[in-house]
Design a protein that fits this description.
The chain folds into 4 domains: 131 residues, no CATH class; 166 residues, no CATH class; 174 residues, Rossmann fold, CATH 3.40.50; 86 residues, no CATH class. The chain is of the alpha/beta class. Strands 4, 5, 6, 7, 8, 9, 10, 11 and 12 form a 9-stranded antiparallel β-sheet that branches. Strands 27-26-28-32-33-34 form a 6-stranded mixed β-sheet, sandwiched between helices. About 6% of the residues have low confidence. Helix 14 crosses helix 15. 19% of the residues lie in helices and 30% in strands.
Length: 714
């Protein structure tokens, strides 16, 4: 069961549970409701539906609601500080909550909102159909391929079978679907269910394995077949429409076409079911007049051909910062990671030479933090966090004397992947990446195999050294009324107690203490995670020295992903990083994006890294897309300049839209990186800060938004 609807009595209402993603969304009602199986079918694909009778539905916070009539024609969209009164009629409401919801209803409807909640009110007790669709996708089948290049081409050609549409709406992540998994075998085997769509598009590449890797994401997004040829070219309806042998090589040409076509799809789709007031559409119209409706109605091959007639330099500045680049070893085994990279619409980079040395190359203070280090306001104390030098008896989280700051795994090979203009990077191959997520396929597969019970998010905090107790704080997790957490704190565990905790069903383990190459340091010795047969922990932060090997063992035994260390970390820095990462995970950041934001405050490159599935979230973001605010006084002293950086997730990946809830902002923006600079009034800034708890930088200082008072603003 993917989606479950639960009625509640203590606070009357309905809780919608996504068992795959582990997400919950509560809807409050005036009276307890009785849920029944729904008999009415909805136009949209859904994973579950019920019917019930209600007078009103109250949402815990503001999310966009799109209203369509019985034929599917858009009528109105609702946001914060909004009130829409709809006359008697047949309506379908699409509620873009952390779980996609649909409400089918007959009769008059009023939708109203403040800055903090939304209400859907009916004229009287009314029968409604409530349905939901998970944002989660998993491979529908597995393709087996040999190492022969043409077999690899056939395997990658199946990626387009996951598309739920070939219209421009496939630029929405929920309408792309997950490509089939790939495994290496003795013969090529393609299930009938994953045959390529008939789009008329082909990507021609030389008979070279790395060329096939490089075009995998583009093949998925276009629904294109990959075929052999002397030159790399994009072909539409048997006509060559673009060479892929550009000045930046095959990878550069593929990236350019992918981003160009994707951006235009996001703009053209505003002529369809989702007629959003999109910022990028306004920007494009300033440079070129395109027949958007005509383009929307064209078959995909002809539409792509027309897109490529638009000069790239007109579109390139409108593309949001790309979510992810996946860097692959050219080895045959890397092919098994292609479906997961393509699902994230990741840029794929084949790295020929990446090894650097046997020790991680740490970032220097001057390289990573040219400005004075900003401070993070703590949750419960007015004082700022101490600087690293301020602890007179600072010690590392190692049980031995450090050698040159590190004594870690001298036989290990470290890699530094190439720089890309993406928010996040992942590495697939041998060695330990010091500036990217080590994307172990095992972690991704474990995520697909796990299923949430729908119970509160379970957090285990372990402190196995009383000198590190400053990092322990149950208030770091579960401060959101609509999202229940079950937080348990453990101290000074024995080996057996820690083993039992690792085997238990935990959504997240925050370990604070010493770690040696032999295992976790416990009260009665060390516990090697590789000796634990089955791990029930999904995600983790192992905040001790040299925790990489233990984190890898946790994933091999059933874990999904986590944050680990490469060498020794001093206690003061580790405490600050641990508390900040905990707050970011609680706010809905993924493992990768949490560590990325933590890197804006502390040195983490070369010390901390993400292993396993770095795109996984511990908790859901209220706004759908985790974000960071930077606020400063406007130069004219009339209002505030607000820069919002958005961090897409697996569920709200490239193609998702984001709008800040401010009365003067009437547009949507494509999620990914920095939005255009906004100038907001003081009341708008206050409302934005109070909306959800997100990291905020005010004149160079780090805060949590909900801790900012009027006096703290410049």
């Amino acid at each position: 069961m993917t989606i479950e609807f639960q009625s509640t009595d203590s606070t009357p209402g309905i809780v919608v549970v996504d068992h795959i993603e582990g997400r919950r969304f509560p809807l409050t009602t005036r009276q307890p409701v009785v849920l029944q199986a729904a008999s009415e079918r909805l136009r949209e694909p859904v994973d579950g539906a019920v019917s019930c009778r209600v007078e009103e539905l109250t949402l815990p916070y503001v999310v966009p609601i799109f209203v369509r009539d019985a034929s599917g024609t858009p009528i109105v969209e609702c946001h914060d500080f909004d009130e829409q009164e709809l006359p008697d009629g047949e309506y379908e409401l699409e509620i873009t909550a952390p779980i996609k919801l649909f409400c089918r209803v007959s009769g008059p409807v009023t939708i109203s909102s403040t800055s903090t909640e939304m209400r859907i009110t009916f004229e009287a007790t009314t029968s409604i159909t409530l349905a939901a669709r998970s944002y989660h996708e998993r491979p529908a089948a597995t393709v087996t391929t040999t190492g022969a290049v043409e077999d690899l081409m056939t395997a990658v050609s199946t990626f387009g079978s996951a598309l739920k549409t070939t219209s421009p709406e496939r630029s929405f992540p929920s309408l792309r679907g997950h490509p089939p998994a790939i495994e290496i075998g003795d013969t090529l085997s393609v299930p009938d269910a994953v045959s390529p769509p008939e789009t008329g598009l082909q990507i021609q590449v030389p008979r070279d394995r790395t060329a096939v890797y490089a075009v995998a994401t583009l093949a998925h997004y276009l629904g294109a077949r990959v075929v052999p040829g002397e030159e790399a070219r994009l072909i539409a309806d048997d006509e060559v429409v673009r060479s892929l042998d550009g000045p930046n090589g095959l990878q550069g040409a593929v990236t350019e076409i992918l981003q160009h076509v994707f951006l235009l799809d996001c703009i053209v789709r505003t002529e369809g079911r989702y007629q959003l007031n999109l910022h990028q559409r306004h920007q494009l119209a300033e440079h070129v007049d395109l027949p958007l409706r005509e383009l929307y109605d064209l078959p995909i091959a002809e539409r792509i051909t027309r897109y490529l007639d638009v000069p790239v330099d007109i579109v390139s500045d409108l593309v949001p910062t790309w979510y992810l680049s996946t860097h692959l070893s050219p080895k045959l085994t890397s092919v098994e990671s292609l479906p997961y990279a393509a699902n994230a619409l990741s840029i794929i980079c084949v790295e020929q030479r990446t090894a650097i040395d046997s020790q991680p190359e740490l970032e220097s203070e001057s390289e990573s933090e040219p400005e004075p280090e900003p401070e993070l306001e703590p949750e419960s104390e007015p004082e700022r966090e101490p600087e690293r030098e301020s602890e007179p008896e600072a010690f590392t989280r190692a049980t031995r004397s450090p050698s040159n700051g590190s004594d870690t795994s001298s036989e290990s090979t470290y890699v530094r992947v190439s720089d890309t203009d993406t928010l996040e990077r992942a590495w697939v191959g041998d060695g330990r990446a010091i500036n990217a997520n080590d994307l172990y396929l095992t972690g991704v597969q474990n995520r697909f195999a796990s299923e949430s019970t729908g119970d509160p998010i379970t957090i285990g905090v372990v402190c196995n050294d009383e000198r590190m107790v400053a990092e322990v704080d149950s208030n770091l997790y579960g401060d959101r009324e609509e999202l229940p957490f079950d937080v348990a704190i453990h101290a000074n565990l024995t080996r057996e107690e820690l083993r039992e905790l690792l085997e238990s069903d935990l959504d997240f383990l925050h370990y604070i203490g010493h770690v040696e190459r032999e295992g976790f340091v416990c009260r009665d010795g060390t516990l090697d995670a590789s000796d634990v047969d089955t791990v029930g922990v999904d995600t983790f932060l192992l905040n001790g020295c040299q925790s990489y090997d233990q984190g890898r063992a946790v994933i091999d035994a059933g874990g999904v992903g986590g944050i680990v260390t490469h060498g020794d970390v001093d206690n003061t820095s580790a405490t600050a990083v641990g508390r900040l990462v905990a707050g970011l995970l609680n706010a809905g950041y993924s493992l990768r994006s949490a560590l990325s934001v933590a890197g804006r405050r502390h040195l983490v490159t070369g010390q901390y890294s993400v292993i396993g599935d770095g795109g996984v979230q511990v908790a859901q973001s209220e706004s759908g897309t985790p974000n960071l605010l930077e606020i400063s006084r406007a130069p004219e002293n009339d209002g505030y300049e607000v820069l919002i950086t958005t961090y897409p997730t697996l569920g709200t990946a490239m193609g998702s839209c984001y709008t800040p809830y401010a009365s003067s902002v009437d547009r949507y923006f494509l999620a990914g990186g920095e939005l255009p600079l906004l100038v907001l009034s003081l009341p708008e800034v206050v409302d934005l800060l109070a909306l959800e708890r997100v990291p905020t930088i005010i004149d160079g200082e780090f805060w949590w938004s909900t801790d900012v008072s009027l006096g703290d603003l410049p």
